[in-house]
Each structure stands twice: as structure tokens, then as C-alpha cells.
Amino acid sequence: MIPKQKPRVGIFNLSSCEGCIVQILNLGEKLLDLLKLFNIVDCRVLGVKEDYNKLDIAIIEGCVMSFEEEVKAREIRERSEIVIALGDCAVSGNINFMKDITNKPHKSKPLSEVIKVDHEIPGCPISSEEFYRVLIDILMGKKITKKSITVCSECVLRENNCLLEKGVPCLGPITRGDCNAICPSNNRPCFGCRGLADDANIDALIKAFRDRNIPISQYLIALNQMKHKGGEER
Questions:
Q1: Where are the domains of the chain?
Q2: How far is residue 234's CA from residue 217's CA, in Å, rounded to a whole number?
Q3: Cα separation of 215 and 171, whole Å?
Q4: Which residues are registered as beta bridge partners of 80?
Q5: Which of 93, 94, 126, 134 is nearest to 22 (CA)?
Q6: CA 25, 26, 32: angle at the middle one, nearest 5?
Q7: Which residue in 5, 34, 49, 90 could disulfide with 111, CB within 3.0 to 4.6 Å?
Q8: Residue 38 and residue 15: Cα distance in Å, rounded?
């Protein structure tokens, strides 16, 4: 149900390149539609800073890489009814996190390790259309679910030639889809920016790499170690 008053929204940045914020701006006319439905009261990129005590929705881009950012994230959480992690940096820590797990000590954290996150919009950068859809679903009170399809499955649906068969180190078989396989469709390997699919079989992908003499990156090894460690803890 659409509320009578426009929800108050804040858009915040932690450690990131702000590419996901650019994707919001790339919505064009759809952004104008959102501005008719939501009241943005805090956004540095847009030059908006109004007085407010509470937020209905806080959108946070970037990973946590300092004590000051932890404090900032907690302050935003305390003032917000709903918190959305925007982009792979906020959702998983992205490149900064993977750099740290292969070159200890750890220095960066995904947002969910610091505060409670209500919704996640993955991607590096995010899909503008997915951002629009999530905000409208929240406004309408709809349940937001993640699709279980992989990037590899989307490649098949689009009849793309498999990059693995060409000897290219593509992570599509283990990565959550709903991006229309945008990278492989443009002859670029998937690098896993939408996170692991629910049934991701990293061991099988590593074997596929070896069978095709594709170099196995430290990133993929670290992912496999984390997945197996998580299974042991459960």
C-alpha cells in the first residue's frame, strides 16, 4: 500500500568508487518518477542535506574500511526504518574485501557485518532497473526475493558462446544472475559481482578451469575456502 506521505530517503557513501550512485543518476526520467514518490532528504552527491530525525529508507553504498565508517553505519541504522546495501562493495566487500582475505590482515567489511541490512542490491555497478524495481516494491509493500538463476544460465538463454570453452576465466557458473549476463554478452568474463548463487559449486568450476588449462586466481581459491569454512561452521 502506498503511504500518504512520501517516504524520507537518505543515500550515503562509505568506501567505494560511487559508481552505483552514478547508476541511480542514469535512471533518467525514471529517477524523476522516483522523486515524485520519495523525498530524498540526505544525499551528498545530489547536494541535498535537510534537517531530519528519522529516515524511512537509508541506502548505503560502499564497504566499511575504518572505525569511523563503522560508527557512521551504526548511526544511520539507528535512524532508519529500512537499510538497503547498495552494490557489491556494501553487499560483500567487493574487491577491497577479496584483496584483504588474500593479503591479511582483513581491513574491509561488508555492511551486514556491522549492522542489520534489510535488503541488498548486488552488482558492480548495480543495475539501474533493479534499483528502481526494489524501491517500487518496497513502496508497494511487496516481498523482495533474489532470483536463483545463475549468470551461466542467462548466457544459455541468450545463446551466448561459452567463454570457458574459449579458455577465458569466467565465474558465470557460480554467480547469481538477474543481470542479463551483461558481461559475457559483451565478450567479457563474469567476475562474480552479484555474489555466489545458492547452489554454487566452486569445486566443479575449479576442476573445469584445470581441465581447460585456465589459471586459477587467488580470488577463486579464497572464495572456495570461505564457502567450505562456512559449511564447517554450520
A1: 8-140, 151-233
A2: 26
A3: 12
A4: 55
A5: 126
A6: 60
A7: 90
A8: 25
DSSP alpha helices (H): ranges in the chain? 19-25, 29-37, 67-78, 87-92, 94-102, 128-140, 151-157, 182-185, 202-211, 218-233
Residues 164, 87, 82, 47: what is their CA dihedral angle, to the nearest 10 degrees? Answer: -160
CATH architecture of the domain covering 8-140: 3-Layer(aba) Sandwich (3.40)
Alpha helices, DSSP H only, in 141-201?
A: 151-157, 182-185
Confidence of residue 96 (pLDDT cuts 50, 70, 90): low
**Cell 532508519, residue?**
80
DSSP-derived secondary structure letter, 112 = G
Among 88-92, 106-110, 115-119, which range has the highest average pLDDT? 115-119
User: What number of H helices and E strands is found in the chain?
Assistant: 10, 6
Element (H, E) at 60: strand 55-61
Within 13 Å and on the Cβ side, how many CA atoms surround 75? 10
Q: What does the pLDDT look like over 111-162, one tens digit per residue?
A: 999 999 999 999 999 999 999 999 999 999 998 888 889 999 999 999 999 9
List the grid coordinates of 151.
549468470
Query: What's the chain's average pLDDT?
Result: 89
C-alpha cell at 230: 562456512
> End-to-end alpha-carbon separation of the chain, Å?
38
